[in-house]
Amino acid sequence: MPETPSPPQSAQRISKRVRVLCPAHYKIDGQEPAAFATVVVINLNGLYLATPQELPTGRELEVTISLPGEGQVYRSRARVIDSHHRVTPGRGQVPGVGCAFVEPPSELVSAIRNLSQF
Question: Which residue range(s) make up the domain with 111?
Answer without folding.
Answer: 15-115
